[in-house]
Amino acid sequence: MPQVSMTVNGRAVSGEVEGRTLLVEFLREGLRLTGTHVGCDTSQCGACAVHVDGKLVKACTAFAAELDGAEVTTIEGMAGADGSLSAVQQAFQDYHGLQCGFCTPGMVMAGAALLEENPRPSEADVRQYLEGNICRCTGYHNIVKAIMAASGQEVEPVAAE
Question: Which of 32, 56, 79, 120 sits most deeply, having the most CB atoms within 10 A of its CB?
């Protein structure tokens, strides 16, 4: 079996993988980083989104062996070293950008990737960027608000329940 080495959330890791081992399997089963979710196995839902060398990637579409030497960031790597939430994570909390939470890791990773590419996206930009991520609970409204708020834009507060 081939050996793969990569940096995951700032830490050098390595392991033996079969050629067919998906990145999501390597992360979840090999490294026990279970924040990256498997939602559909067809690359349609985005729950498995991670950053590979700074680019948003669906971890169910990438073979671990092909990423030898890559730098991977998962949802577990988004928080600060002191445990403080990233701006996107904090905005998801502040603007109730989650319900069941299953899609949340992928949405946070997609939102962070968008803000790297476009620091001041419009609502239409956010909605278009999230087309590859499915949420079955929220209707996306608060997810969009959260990403816009994380960009530093003025967003109307979420109504109290």
Answer: 56
Q: Which residue has the tokens 């991977």?
A: 72
Residues 3 and 16 sit within 8 Å (Cβ to Cβ): yes
List the domain boundaries for the chain: 3-76, 87-150
pLDDT in tens, 113-145: 999 999 999 999 999 999 989 998 878 999 999
- CA 24 to CA 126: how far, in whole Å? 25
Whose structure tokens read 């994380």?
150
Stretch (H or E) spanning 49: strand 49-52
CATH of 87-150, picked from 1.10.150.120, 2.60.40.10, 3.10.105.10, 3.90.700.10, is: 1.10.150.120
Strand ordering across the sheet containing 11-16? 11-16, 3-8, 71-73, 49-52, 55-58
Of 147, 24, 6, the residue nearest 67 (C-alpha): 6
Q: Which fold has domain 3-76?
A: Ubiquitin-like (UB roll) (3.10.20)
Whether 46 contacts 132, CB under 8 Å: yes
Q: Which residue shows structure tokens 């499915």?
A: 134
User: What is the reported pTM?
Assistant: 0.92
